[in-house]
User: Fold this.
Amino acid sequence: MHLTREEERMLSGELGEPVAKAIEVLVSVGEALGAERLIEVAHAHVSGVSYFNVGDPGLEFIEDLSRGGARFATFTTANPYAALAVYGSKGFNEELVAKQMRIVEALKRMGARSFTCAPYYVRTPSVGEHLAWAESSAVLYANSVLGAMTNREPGIVALMAGIAGRTYLGKAHEGLPGEVEYVVDIERPSDPSEAGAYGLLAGELLGSSTPLVRGLEGLPDSFLKEFLAALATSSPSHLAVLEGVTPGYRSVGAASAERVSLGRSDISRLYSEARSCSSPLYLVGCPHLSLEELEEVLLRVEGVERGELWLTVGEHYARYLVGVRRAERVKILTGACAVATRLDLLGVDCVITDSAKALAYLPKLANVRAFLVKRRDLLRMVSDLD
Amino acid sequence: MTEVPLYPIGRAPKERVCGELLVYGGFVSPLGDVDPETGRLRGGGALGGKVVAVKGFTGSTVGPYVVYSLKKRGLAPRALVVEQLDANAVASAVVAGIPLYRVDSLSEVERLYGEGLRFVCAESGRLRPRGLLIAVEGVDGAGKTTVSKRLRDILERCGFRAVYTYEPYYDAVRSIFESRSMELTPAVEALLLVADRYSHYESVIRREVERGSVVVLDRYKYSTIAYQGAAGLPIEWLLEIQRYLPDPDLAIYLDVDPEEGLRRKAASGPRSLAYFEEDVERIRRAREIYLGLASEGKLVLVDARVELSKVMEKVVDAIEERLGLDLRECSRE
Assistant:
């Protein structure tokens, strides 16, 4: 791999051991994947922050880095941590909370700006900007909606990219493909959850190919975000070209592409009634809500009859929430992710959510049953249980 | 001998890396598939100190943290070999400082493993099976033959190609000692036994080691140094005449009192040939030489006065510590 003189100096340890290790990881990964050089990034986004995901090994690694003097050389954000909230009267034990906070503190010492799965609400990348992001939903959003360029980085690679201010020049940094193999026509979704359901199915059909998606033009940001987040759970692709949305989408050819159509009848099986929940958690905010979405949700909720409603947003919104009125049993969690939290340990038996991504991950990561409903139905259900 | 081409990823280590081979035919997710406390692969053995070959890495991107943590606890593989490279495998190897290699096909490595060639070295772009020489030494009656044969059985149970052999090897040499058809001065003894050893090495041991076998030797170089040294010959000369014989990878010295050894010898019946005449004083001096060699680190001292199962435990421990072979599971009967 070709390295600049400065990168050679970084690799040789002139700028300290953490930088040398970071460059070594990036060069090795890049060489193994056939990259020709490194590229400077404007924003790194680190995943692997929840203690439930990374455990003691992750805590140890991040703390060792931070103690060893590692500091982020570029604008860096990190994924949300475990939701350390109390559900009903149950919370997590002190040791677990302390370990989670040690991870957060170590990342803050290194310079992490916020904890969120929607880093584009912290700093919105510009078209053509090079990033090193690890959160899959954010990667798809950056590449497909904002026209930025990022590999779908493993958490540790994004962490190293933050320290080195660079990543390897992977395929994603070459921009949009000339041709796609699939065109997916989507029946216009009526709410963000439907967009997510389409994303989940599209990802299953496409495997690792990059599709051209039609039918999402002109929809609110929340729809696009849910669609791409869900697509990222079922497909390893880093990009979906969205007609009418992705900057430069017109340059992408689809002459010999296979066509797939998805309609309401395809996604109906993902919705089911959640009548057997005794301790439900209503979850809105996977991926994290924008301030506008949060405002809209808060306006529509009167109170919660049974269980609790959690609204999850980026940590950097905390300062806007001082004094915000919220109804009984409605919690706004900043910087936290309910999906990356063992909710069963809090006594939650099922989660009712409008997020197709959460639907896919909750049983595996949070160890609870999950049900998908539309956002407006969810907000009606919380105050209106039979 | 069968070798497998290897492609080093990232900074290749300058020196060769050797260890017990562990092959897992599938993709491994370090988070979930490896116990972080013990470093054991689910449904497989311990990874610590081994050359671990897998199809590739999969699963959570937390994998590199797990490998890093294993390394800090001394439970990480000595080298990683994968068929399919991905960012997680590379990042894991680099952050933990473990050499990583790619192979064209994991099945080539699986073939080595299946043939019992389970000690390998990564060197000069090749994964090479390597044989091992383990010598079991001690005075008469220390239990060398029993321990050596048990060790061979344990190695075979663990899947290694293993061979037991003994010295003196040739009947002609043994019969000289039995019949006393030559005048046996200590120097004659030494030369006869060393001649037997050179011939044994050339005709049996070398071939087995080159085939990748673990050869368990019931007596080797140190017997001559101890016994003929005890008869007053200079150690330097005894070393000199054996200069062209390789040192064993591990030599174990089973220690008993001379009297206890002779009692055991007598109890085992008339068929057994005493390696040397049953002269307690000479055996005592041989023991002192053995103990001296053990204190220099040339042999690993194992107390052989205790029951056999305890002795075997110590032997298995020494093999794990010195050679990195993980025999514990198979040593349980």
User: Anything to note?
Assistant: Chain B has two domains: 4-129, 132-331. The first strand of chain B starts at residue 4 and ends at 5.
